Amino acid sequence: MAALLPAEWIKNWEKGGKNEFVQLCRALSENKNHDVGFRDIQQALYELAYHVVRGNLKHDQASNVLGDVIEFREDMPSILADVFCILDIETSCLEEKNKRDHFTQLVLACLYLVSDTVLKERLDPETLESLGLIKQSQQFNQKSVKIKTKLFYKQQKFNLLREENEGYAKLIAELGQDLSGNITSDLILENIKSLIGCFNLDPNRVLDIILEVYECRPEYDDFFVPLIESYMYMCEPQTLCHILGFKFKFYQDPSGETPSSLYRVAAVLLQHNLIDLEDLYVHLLPGDNAIIEEHKREIVEAKQIVRKLTMVVLSSEKTEEKEKEKEKEEEKTEKPPDNQKLGLLEALLKIGDWHHAQSIMDQMPPFYSTSHKPIAIALCQLVHVTIEPLYRRVGVPKGAKGSPVSSLPNKRAPKQAESFEELRKEVFNMLCYLGPHLSHDPILFAKVVRLGKAFMKEAGTVKKFVSDRVVKFQSDGSKQEDKEKMETLFSCLLSITDQVLLPSLSLMDCNACMSEELWGMFKTFPYQYRYRLYGQWKNETYNSHPLLVKVKAQTIDRAKYIMKRLTKENVKPSGRQIGKLSHSNPTILFDYILSQIQKYDNLITPVVDSLKYLTSLNYDVLAYCIIEALANPEKERMKHDDTTISSWLQSLASFCGAIFRKYPIELAGLLQYVANQLKAGKSFDLLILKEVVQKMAGIEITEEMTMEQLEAMTGGEQLKAEGGYFGQIRNTKKSSQRLKDALLDHDLALPLCLLMAQQRNGVVFQEGGEKHLKLVGKLYDQCHDTLVQFGGFLASNLSTEDYIKRVPSIDVLCNEFHTPHDAAFFLSRPMYAHHISSKYDELKKAEKGNKQQHKVHKYITSCELVMAPVHEAVISLHLPKVWDDISPQFYATFWSLTMYDLAVPHSSYDREVNKLKVQMKAIDDNQEMPPNKKKKEKERCTALQDKLLEEEKKQLEHVQRVLQRLKLEKDNWLLAKSTKNETITKFLQLCIFPRCIFSAIDAVYCAHFVELVHQQKTPNFSTLLCYDRVFSDIIYTVASCTENEASRYGRFLCCMLETVTRWHSDRVIYEKECGNYPGFLTILRATGFDGGNKADQLDYENFRHVVHKWHYKLTKASVHCLETGEYTHIRNILIVLTKILPWYPKVLNLGQALERRVHKICQEEKEKRPDLYALAMGYSGQLKSRKPFMIPENEFHHKDPPARNAVPATVQNGPGGAGMPTSLAINTVRLEEGATEETADKLKEKSQGVVKVINKTVNATPKVTTSNGNSASNSKIIKEKDDKEKSGKEKDKEKKDKTPAATPEMKALGKDGKDKPKEERANKDEKAREIKEKTPKSDKEKEKVKKEEKASKEEKSKMVVTIIESKSTAEKEREKEPSRERDLAKEIKSKENAKGGEKVPVAGSLKSPVPRSETSESEREQKRRKVDTHSSPSHSSTVKHYINHTTPTLSKSKEREVEKKDLDKSRERSREREKKDEKDRKDRKRDHSNSDREVPQDSTKRRKEENGTTGSSKHSKSESPSDSPRLNEKEKEKNKSKSSGKDKGDSIKAEKMEKSSSGSKKESRHDKEKTEKKEKRDSTGGKEEKKHHKSSDKHR
């Protein structure tokens, strides 16, 4: 600290130092900051005195200046005495005597400034003696000790003998007299004073007696309180507190019990502030530390009880445990020592002194005080009193009398609440101190709840802004302040509910009324707040109080007891027990029940039935508990194998559905939870929505529907309900209404739909990243099925207005919400139907024309009005060029109609009506049924029957109207500005395929729609092409389906096959339904012109060939899928095959091929993939049962025998080898309409004259026909040769010369035809073996080529025979038609010029028919690989029709001989091969597994070339999404000719030596040379297609 007195001042004291010092002291005295001034003056005086002690200043100078400054402050003498005191201590320790002398002189000089008494107080006795203020220090010390003893340690002795007892008697009489008169406390006080004076009474004892009398006369507060207050003026303030403290101390013995009267007196004195709580509190026992210890002990005990309850105790130990517990309980029942603090608290509460009571409660642990029942009850009573006026005004229910609570007599009690604001200020605070112990007073509980309810009502229109999680209140003209007040009040109410009401409910003995009362208030809260409260209640509240900890443990224990005994038989008694338990502790109980349900799903039904005794609040809590269980982050939603959804989730979902249907539980929370999960990109929980909708609305989604059910689903609502579902779910009206309301009230209907529609792809691309493919498929299906089910629910339950208001237009759905098109139309479809029907009704009302025509006209008008904007909207969904082929109107019509619009399921209606008739008969025959019930049941059945019949009639009228509308629309449907083929592509791609896998009914609808478009004779629609594209290559479609989609796709194929089979079965039906329909034109002319020429139509027999081809294609695709080894391929094809079983396989050999493959799957998958094994076994069994109904191939389609000589040659079709002119049927179908009119005419000629041409072909290509080793390339060659060597003139001639089909030679050959089936059988074994050996498992293309190889093998013998005859036939042809030959030569030449390399395939086809063991294994592998890599399904599939193009003309005996030899050879060959190939199969698998599927670049060009020629397959485009490129084909042929040319040449020569003339050899060599020349021109490729067309036209 810096010196205040500089040394210069001391040096120049007289000159200026003294004045400076005085100035300093004055300045310090005037300092406003009292403390700082005081300290500084002390320091200044000290420094001055110290300078005197050190001898720097004379004592008289110092005393003079001190005399000047002493007046500056009143307390200056005291400050100076303090300074002397300090210096006294310091100088007494110093050895220098002079300093001590200086000090003594200074004090003596200043004696006139400081009084003696002050100095005597502060200085040492020795110093005082030296100053002469006292005589002897020793005596002074003795005297002070005596005084202190007297002051602090001696009791005042009253002369008891002097006090006269009469005085006390008079005092008691005075205080005990009747006080009801005019006696006042002042009067009595005067008397008491007189008594004290007269009888020498001890004033303290008098006060004690006054308190005693007051204790005995508590009703006279108004008298005693003023008396004591007046009396206290005569005593010291502490006296009263001490006397009370002594009184309390008296009762602090272990056996003592403090009387309540004493507590009351103390409380009243505290309330009137006659004593301080702090002063009295220290006199009370037990200490605060003891209370805290006790509280901790209670918590520990509670936890121990919980532990005991959760422990599993063996029976022998149980009894001992129980005994110990009993002993402990007995010990506990010993009376606890009196808690005086709690006694005082109770008294304070009773008299309404909330302020002091609160202070005491704050000193204790939370809820410790109120855990004592008397205190809780006292506090409850105080609350009763405080809320009384408000409760009477707003809380009393109508009709209830209630008993009014009288207010407290004293005025210092809390003010009674008149408004909610006052309630908040006082009562809510009291309730918070009560906490869970409000349970002691159920009546108060009810009152508080009713006040809460009244507040929610008065708060007026409570606006819920759930998104902001804020509740806004609005009342008329209310200001912002009022709103804020209301919000504050609301949040206080929520706090009270959380901290007081719910915990108190837990501690109440099951009180259903309280639970219902509480629900009355809760239901006014938005569910978000309710669920938050339940969450706090369940997860936090139970851990905060020892009592609640115990209650939780007991509840769980009881729940375990009940659940162990719950069965279907004892549902009622167990249900009652559950109900009882749930009234108080629903969260704990339901948590346990749900945990059990998740483990044991067989508990679901009994639990659901047993929950009928719950209160509304409990149901709401149950909903919360379910959501919490679903959202449990610790639970895995997948099983350990990661391919299936966890069983706990499935069980919970099932429970949800059942519980929400049966009981009136609010759904909003659950639905919002599902929506939130979807928003987060999680689709697992859609399982819950699916179950809820299924159970509540009775809308079932299952892929296992029977055809009868499916048919019923195409009817009206009543028929759907009766015959469409597995479970006859009745009485769903109320539950579906609840579900609808929940969706509409919370605006969840459309968001859920959109989220599901978006999530479908999300499942694959976002959610499915790491997951197993099987699980991704399952989730996708679940998402899709739930969307379909949910959409169906909305469509059938929402009113037209609701639906239209919520669902936006189709372009908004697709473009803004990014909803997939199929889903968008699915959602919009009901809207269109609603719209049209309402418009139609309007028009009907407006004009009362009753004629059918008028009605139809009105219907069409309403359709146009509604659908016109839709036609506009759909244009934005696809690229503009789409609308070149199909019109927006057609697109919208397809997507907006349903099966209900297309056909009436009469059989379903009849079936259901008959069922009802049977029921009615059974009711009549039932003797036991009481008559009134009989009557009711019969009435129900009759009403239902009438409804069904009415519905059928209504649907019939509707369907007729729709068909009329379609008839009018159809001409504008298909524009086909590019080609018909392109039109079909667009139709399949944008309409059929997306919709046929959408739902089972949509699958049926698609098939029906195709048939309908055909029946309507729609322009530009080729039915034949459409069916061909659907059946030709199903591999890609099947492989890309999920499990359920495969099932629907199977249904679609099944319905398509059903139609085809119907047409195939009977010529009459075919002629009637297809005969002269434009869909079956085989010549596709330039757009817009469909000739009605009968000759252009596909005839019945050719149609049968086509159907056989489709069956063959299906077999091929199926076998390929089964052989891939891919899980998805195998599963899906098995599902599809099971679905199409009624109509496929019909042909025996195809059925056997399938059966073998499926059998192999059964063996391979038994251990590996049990689900595939189960599917395969199921299909295998069904297939076997259908075997008796399969027919040989020659019965399936008529096989023409091969003709002799000039008779038209037939085209081989199928593995059996029957001849057929299928080339006519299919070839012409695939023509491109882009060709000129000339081309179309040419084709027409070809279709009739091609038979002759085939003979000609034989002449031109004898070498080609020698081999059928590689059927794919073979057929290709033959096609191409046919194409080139037929000019228009030739065909004209052929037409004239060779049209008669039944020449005598033909008849003769009929016998040969009979031998063919034998060959078939002989070759079957070989074929079967080859199927197994040769089919690679990696590539579709490979598989197909190999399959054709097998098929063609059978024909080798026949083919070789035909070579010999080919020359003679050729010669005959030449003789007959030299001009034709010339034309041919020209044509070939021009073709070679225009199209280099067209003949390349010849070289490639030269595959030796001699046993394969002659060629090296490696070469064979090489060849196979090349063929496999480049051939495509489309081309390989054409082989069936072109396996044998030659006309066998040998004599019958020779022919048989040759056949026999070849048969033997082929058997030998196959046996050898079987052994070798068995070894190599694994290698081949490996070799082929990596070859990729090449998607060709020039497939379209190739198709056009083929369409320009007669001999190609017209199905190549539809059979496969990819045709192999021409260059690849050429390379293939080239490579093959290089690799195996030599061997082939040799083997061919060898065989020909045996069987043929040398002429044919020369010709084959000549062919070879030609091929080599042609190879040089390979590079020109497929670009010359158009030139080719032109050149052929010229030659025509």
Task: Describe the structure in your own words.
It is a single chain. By secondary structure, this protein is mostly helical. The protein has 75 helices and four strands. The radius of gyration is 55 Å and the shape is elongated.
Summarize the SSE layout with pairings.
Elements (H helix, E strand, L loop, with lengths): L6 H5 L1 H17 L4 H21 L4 H11 L6 H18 L3 H13 L6 H7 L2 H7 L5 H16 L12 H12 L8 H15 L3 H14 L4 H11 L5 H14 L9 H12 L5 H5 L6 H23 L4 H19 L6 H12 L2 H10 L9 H23 L24 H15 L7 H17 L2 E5 L4 E5 L5 H28 L4 H11 L4 H13 L6 H20 L5 H14 L1 H14 L4 H7 L5 H15 L16 H16 L5 H12 L6 H12 L9 H6 L4 H7 L9 H13 L3 H19 L5 H25 L2 H7 L3 H6 L5 H26 L5 H23 L13 H9 L2 H4 L3 H20 L5 H39 L10 H17 L3 H16 L7 H10 L2 H5 L3 H23 L1 H9 L24 H24 L3 H13 L8 H21 L1 H17 L6 H4 L14 E3 L4 E3 L1 H8 L7 H24 L10 H14 L3 H11 L5 H31 L5 H14 L2 H21 L1 H17 L6 H5 L11 H14 L2 H5 L14 H38 L9 H9 L8 H4 L6 H30 L2 H19 L8 H11 L1
Helix pairs in contact: 2-3, 3-5, 3-6, 4-6, 5-6, 8-9, 10-11, 10-12, 11-13, 12-13, 12-15, 15-19, 17-27, 19-20, 19-21, 21-22, 21-23, 22-24, 23-24, 23-25, 24-26, 27-28, 27-29, 28-29, 28-30, 29-31, 29-32, 32-34, 33-38, 34-39, 38-39, 39-42, 42-43, 43-44, 43-47, 46-47, 48-49, 48-50, 49-52, 52-53, ...
Strand order, biggest sheet?
Answer: 1-2
Helix % is 55-70%
How far do the termini sit from each other? 131 Å
**How would you name the oligomeric state of the polypeptide chains in this document?**
single chain
Counting DSSP E segments of at least 2 residues, the number of strands comes to 4
Low-confidence stretches: 461-478, 1086-1092, 1201-1347, 1350-1452, 1484-1566, 1568-1596
Task: Give the CA-based shape.
Answer: elongated
Largest sheet: 2 strands, antiparallel
Into which percentage range does the β-strand content fall? under 5%
Mean pLDDT: 75
The radius of gyration over CA amounts to 55 Å
The computed structural class is: mainly alpha
Give the number of helices: 75
